[in-house]
Design a protein that fits this description.
single chain, 145 residues, alpha+beta, Aminopeptidase, seven-stranded mixed β-sheet, 4 helices, 28% helix
């Protein structure tokens, strides 16, 4: 059974492992070239950790979501995808941060489909300054634009 819980220091390493997983780097706006260094993760979590939630399956972290600066990011372990975990994470992060939105690469159809399933709509397309890639800005359907 999947449980969505608030982030805690004991989950930081697992979040770092998921974020560094080479199988999913193509999904992120800024893919990592190297695993996250422990001190870098610690500093990041000390600043933003309260903005994360995690999905647990028998006390194992199988996914996370975060919202800071109103921007949502969701990550689910590839071995646990297509089980409804991403949807649970998005619904909970929106409950906690209702003014958040998602930036999704236009090439990332699975993420766009997931956000649409969670009642997000594409409100505009922009070019991401750092990579030149096109992104969809997706807002929760009840948000004013």
């Amino acid at each position: 059974m999947i449980h969505i819980v608030s982030n805690h220091k004991k989950y930081w390493e697992s979040i770092s492992r998921l974020r560094s997983d080479p199988r999913i780097q193509h999904c992120f706006l800024e893919p990592l070239l190297f695993p996250i260094e422990p001190n870098t993760q610690k500093t990041h979590m000390e600043k933003y950790g309260d903005n994360y939630i995690v999905a647990l399956d028998n006390d194992e972290v199988v996914g996370y979501a975060r919202s800071f600066d109103r921007d949502i990011a969701v990550c689910v372990d590839p071995e646990h995808q297509r089980k409804g975990i991403g949807e649970k994470l998005i619904k909970e992060i929106v409950r906690r941060y209702p003014d958040s939105y998602a930036r999704v690469k236009t090439t990332n159809i699975p993420s766009m489909t997931l956000f649409k399933k969670c009642n997000f709509v594409v409100t505009k397309t922009v070019t991401y300054d750092k990579t030149g890639e096109n992104l969809w800005i997706m807002n929760y359907e009840t948000q004013s634009l």
